Structure formats: structure tokens, C-alpha cells
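Exercise 7.
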Amino acid sequence: QRSYIHAHPSRNVEHFPDTRERLAKRRISAKDYVRILESAPAYLRVGILLLEQTGDRTYSELFSLRWEQVDLDAGVISFNVQLKTENSDTVHPLSDLAVKILRWWKDQTVRGNPFIFPSPRVPDQPIRNVRKAWGKTLEDAKITYFPIYNLRNAFCTRLSKVASDTVVTKAMRHSSAETKRRYQLGMVEEVREAMNLANTETY
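Solution. The predicted structure, written as C-alpha cells, is:
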């Protein structure tokens, strides 16, 4: 015979405290940033600089980049592959500093390799994971561990100090129906100007 139960069986079950397991986002001071760069191997140092300068997603965007996707003369990256969101698949402007870093790195890398960050073990493939190298870098710099993805947060925070919400949204390539409809085809120069201004204000 069917009947109603007085309460849900799981009512008194304690939920898994997942929020306590997550590492809190942290602000990276200029001194810590310099110590991190000084402790990082060359390829990771370049990656760190570019992550902080572009706000790119770590693996799906930056570390999987091919040279053919970067136009150093125009100062843009073309994400012509499947990414996290539809709005990510756009032309992304580079700051002047990011262009200088990429030009320098291109001179240091093996000619003919299509990847900006080729795997040291499998050169015809991009780097798949930098977690160990990142952890070792923070350890050597005597800085408490935080995910390398936080560099994207640092980029957003820094840019937000000098740019409008619209420019920041475009720079971060977040999905927004209104923003995408109104601004998807433009604002390349506005984003670049904001990046350069943010560099001047910070450094």
C-alpha cells in the first residue's frame, strides 16, 4: 500500500564539504610574481608571462597554441579550434609586451616545430601538463601553492582596474549573448589599449 513518508531519507545526511577542499583564489603581489619568474624554467617562465598577459585558459588555449595561430605583425591570436565556449573562438589581441615575449621565444625555439610549447618528450605534440613544473617553481620561490589557472584571475583583476566591463568581458572571451551580439566583431584595439594601460599602471 502506498503512503507518504514523513521526511526525505537523506535529510540528515551531511553534505560533502567540497568548498573546504578548494584552494582559495589569491592575489599575486608584484614581489611574488618576480620570484616565481626567477624560479621557473625558461619555457614555463614564458608561459607564465603569457598567461598573465593574455588571460588565456592554461591548456586548451595557451599551451596548445601553434605558431600559425599567432600573427606577431598584427599582434593577434586566432583561436580556430574547438574551445570551451563559442565566444572563445575569436581573434584575440596581444599586448605589446606579449608580442615582445613571443618574438623572443620564437628565436629560442627549434625552427620548424609547429607548437609554441612543444612537449620535451614528444616534440611533435604540445605540452600536456605543467603541474609538476609549476609546483616545483612555487616551492623554489618559497610561495604557497596555488593553481596556475589563477593567473587568468590575475589578468582579469588587473584589467578591471582600467577597463570597462564590456572590454574585460571581451578580453576574457566569456560567453554573453548581449555582449557577443553587440561587440563580437569589434573592440580589438580597445582590448589591446586596455592591456597596455594595465601594464603601465601595474609595472
